[in-house]
Specification:
Layout: E1 5-8, H1 12-23, E2 28-31, H2 40-44, E3 48-50, H3 53-58, E4 62-65, H4 70-78, H5 83-86, E5 92-95, H6 101-113, E6 117-120, E7 123-124, H7 127-132, E8 135-140, H8 143-153, E9 157-164, H9 168-196, H10 201-209, H11 216-227, H12 237-253, H13 259-276, H14 284-290
Parallel strand pairs: 1-2, 1-4, 2-3, 4-5, 5-6, 8-9
Antiparallel strand pairs: 7-8
Length: 291
């Protein structure tokens, strides 16, 4: 008998995760929420719904979270009508969100005090890979629990790395996103400078691709640089700013150098404060060129 899975957060990433869990034959219950993507496909596949996180937990042996960030994780786990109110002894909470690691450690302790078990399993890649079941997962938690849950994680992930104890997954995710988003922001600023200097975008892309500027960040920006198509990186500026804020908080907590990170964060902050939070990150090129 496959475990009963509950899931909270059926957004751009979560919908793909839920789709692949259902495709692998796990009984799945999801939370009805205004922020969800349409649930028609999931319901047609036999997925059931509940209207409170408490009821999702009560119906589940494993609860997967895929929400925006730390405030949402804390609210859905610890708040009124939250997961802990419906948690059964032995239930595993798997947090795929991006969160502040010190908060992750606190909520893990709360889950364990309520009789549950906890893994932080933040993801990398995009909604496309989520839909295809090809995400990368960075897992923090007990090695034996990780091994027990790996078959579930493998339903929606291609590469799964055990990063260490609870919190290590979120720490590695923030390191990854700082590097990834930092590269994109640096390239966006350089592309804006190239535009103002009269360098053709085709030349800019071609030269970087053949040299030290090549890689995933350039490939994700390239459709916008060449055709004003922002779909190469479906990641909003507000989400990027949130992740950079979490990273700089982690660096500050650890006494680590963060001057470059502060510059990336400031660039994103200026874009968001100007009312562009919902715009996709590749559009930062146009904003910086016009600044």
């Amino acid at each position: 008998m496959k475990q009963k899975i509950g899931m909270i957060g059926i957004g751009l990433m979560g919908h793909g995760i839920a789709r692949n869990i259902a495709r692998h034959g796990y009984p799945l219950t999801v939370l009805e929420h205004a922020g969800n993507q349409p649930l028609d496909e999931l319901k047609a596949a036999g997925v059931t719904t509940q209207t409170s996180a408490k009821d999702v937990a009560a119906a589940s042996e494993v609860v997967i979270l895929c929400v925006t960030g730390t405030p949402q994780v804390e609210a859905v786990l610890l708040g009124a009508g939250g997961v802990l109110e419906g948690l059964k002894p032995g239930t595993v909470v798997i947090d795929c969100s991006t969160a502040v690691p010190t908060s992750t450690e606190r909520v893990a302790q709360a889950v364990q005090a309520a009789g549950g078990r906890f893994l932080d399993t933040p993801m990398t890649r995009t909604p496309k890979e989520a839909h295809e079941g090809r995400l990368n997962l960075l897992v923090g938690g007990d090695a034996a629990l990780f091994a027990e849950c790996r078959p579930i994680l493998a339903c929606f992930a291609e590469n799964i790395t055990h990063a260490g104890p609870i919190g290590a997954g979120h720490r590695m995710k923030l390191l990854h996103n700082y590097v990834s988003l930092g590269f994109v922001t640096l390239l966006a600023e350089a592309a804006a400078c190239a535009q103002r200097a009269g360098v053709a975008p085709e030349v800019f892309v071609d030269v970087l691709a053949k040299g030290g500027g090549g890689g995933a960040a350039l490939e994700r920006l390239k459709p916008f640089l060449l055709a004003q198509d922002s779909s190469g990186l479906r990641f909003s500026m507000s989400n990027a700013l949130k992740d950079l804020g979490y990273y700089t908080q982690m660096a500050e907590d650890g006494g680590a150098a963060r001057d470059v990170a502060q510059g990336v964060r400031q660039t994103l902050e200026q874009a968001v404060q100007a009312g562009n939070g919902d715009r996709l990150l590749p559009e930062l090129v146009a904003l910086l060129a016009a600044r």
